[in-house]
Design a protein that fits this description.
Number of helices: 16
Largest sheet: 7 strands, antiparallel
Order of helices and strands: EHHHHHHEEEEHEEEEEHEHEHHHHHHH
Radius of gyration: 29 Å
Structural class: alpha+beta
Helix content: 40-55%
Shape: globular
Distance between the termini: 51 Å
Number of domains: 3
Strand content: 15-25%
Number of strands: 12
Strand order of the largest sheet: 2-6-7-1-5-4-3
């Protein structure tokens, strides 16, 4: 487990000028190295060594640039896959509409959409990289900030990846036992090669500081931030730490977690899969915050998840979510999903590991539908709470079999409804039932209003479906309620 500790630096006025020089040269070489790497030129390391006077910062710069370019290439592949899928879907729709009516008015719009997708696919290339923040770059283009302020914010960090070699834990940035950070400069003259900057350590950081002095290698990043009208300097020290022992496992049950873009639901179940309690954690306007504040707010909310698991003394089970999708939502919802993928899920796993909470991931297929169609009769809770309940049971190894009442419904359908899943899939019957409801325009798995009765709504939905299956004779209401208790029928 990688642990990061932040210490504040207190440089003198002379050291501030030298630090700012390191910021400028380091980021200038970084931008030049990325351009050379992007163009695919040879001898990049030698060219960068000549620029910064054979400084070993170059190795860290090359690693960062390769990582950034790999991220851009991954984005390009996903975008190509998405556009190819869209072109295929639109082409199939055009053929289907033409087979029904060649003079259909929607053909013009479909051909226009297909042409637009093909042009986007043809012109798709790697996006240019904005070093610094995109918001500041846009403000600079609008002349809202000066060039000097933009450069000062853009070139606001430099670092060095540590490695254990010849007894040295970090060649350029070293943590000294005297509570100082030794920084390598770009000068070759004697007396100017190094800076020793004092750093402050509080009582909570003292134990971590001693751990840093004992580890084999660590990575140090120096950053500057504008806080309350003044520039402050910090150092971020990251090092590998052994994972703590698991204290909270799944012997006595588990806690199921259902992720949503604006709230989280937690359900506590025992070892037999019995529902015990639940809790909802709301996320207010998470997508509207800037990155730093968004991460802090997400960390604060996830701490409540950790405290809930510790109080119950159980491990955490959540969905193994995949975001490699072939579709796109609006800009607001895409940002919410991206935040969930890049920040909250990895952060939650790290927090669980740090506190000794066992983590288990399960397949997310049809959790909401199973909760609404199977457990709404007995629990009558919101669908998100029921989904968390299904997630917890699935993580404990329980199988959600289709109730006999729904089997009788599917028996009247036969093989007419064929979902996309294979018949050997454990969720085949649930998918078939879902497609049946969807075919008749009924979605009972959605959360009802607080004043409505979910059981009664589900019965009405079943009546609608069964009436559609046999429209000539209809289905008497008594058959719908056969085998159900009076309380289950609302």
């Amino acid at each position: 487990m990688i642990t990061t500790t932040i210490f504040r630096l207190h440089p003198t006025d002379a050291q501030v000028a030298q630090l700012n020089e390191i910021f400028t040269i380091y980021n200038r070489v970084k931008r030049k190295g990325y351009q050379l790497l992007f163009r695919g030129e040879d001898g990049i390391q030698q060219k960068l060594m000549q620029t910064c006077h054979n400084n070993p910062y170059v190795n860290t710069i090359l690693i960062e640039n390769k990582t950034k370019l790999a991220q851009q290439q991954t984005w390009l592949k996903k975008r190509q896959k998405y556009l190819q899928h869209k072109i295929k879907v639109v082409s199939e729709k055009i053929q289907r509409v033409k087979s029904e009516d060649r003079k259909d008015q929607q053909l013009g719009g479909l051909y226009s959409l297909l042409s637009s997708l093909q042009n986007r696919m043809k012109c798709l290339t790697l996006k240019p990289v904005v070093f610094g923040t995109k918001v500041l770059f846009q403000e600079r283009l609008k002349n809202k900030i000066s060039r000097e302020i933009f450069k000062f914010h853009r070139d606001a960090s430099f670092g060095c990846i540590g490695k254990a070699q010849n007894g040295l834990k970090n060649h350029n940035l070293k943590i000294l036992p005297t509570n100082h950070l030794k920084v390598r400069t770009f000068h070759k003259e004697r007396g100017k090669k190094w800076l020793c900057i004092p750093l402050s350590i509080n009582k909570k950081q003292d134990l971590k500081f001693q751990e840093i002095l004992q580890v084999d290698k660590y990575t140090v990043t120096v950053k500057r931030k504008l806080v309350r009208g003044e520039w402050r300097y910090y150092t971020h020290v990251s090092y590998e730490k052994l994972d703590p022992t698991i204290k909270y496992n799944f012997i006595n049950g588990a806690v199921g977690l259902d992720f949503n873009h604006n709230f989280l639901t937690l359900v506590n179940v025992d070892q037999n899969g019995k529902f015990l309690s639940y809790q909802t954690i709301k996320l207010y306007n998470l997508h509207s915050y800037r990155k730093g504040r968004r991460d802090d707010y997400a960390s604060f909310k996830l701490d409540k998840v950790i405290n809930y698991c510790i109080n119950k003394g159980k491990g955490l089970i959540f969905e193994d979510l995949s975001f490699d999708r072939y579709f796109s939502y609006n800009k607001k919802r895409n940002r919410k999903l991206s935040q969930l993928k890049t920040s909250m899920l990895p952060l939650l796993e790290r927090k669980c590991t740090r506190h000794g909470i066992a983590v288990r991931k399960v397949h997310p297929a049809y959790t909401t539908i199973i909760g609404a169609l199977k457990y709404a009769w007995s629990l009558n809770l919101s669908n998100h709470v029921l989904a968390s309940y299904v997630i917890a049971r699935r993580g404990l190894g329980f199988t959600e079999y289709l109730p006999a009442f729904y089997k009788r419904v599917l028996a009247q359908v036969g093989g007419a409804i064929k979902p996309r899943l294979k018949p050997s899939s454990p969720y085949y019957q649930w998918a078939q039932l879902y497609d049946l409801f969807k075919h008749y325009g009924v979605t009972p798995f959605r959360s009802p209003a607080p004043t409505t009765n979910l059981k009664r709504n589900l019965l009405v939905a079943l009546e609608t479906v069964l009436d559609g299956l046999n429209p000539s004779k209809g289905v008497p209401p008594d058959n719908l309620k056969a085998g159900l208790s009076a309380s289950a029928c609302g």
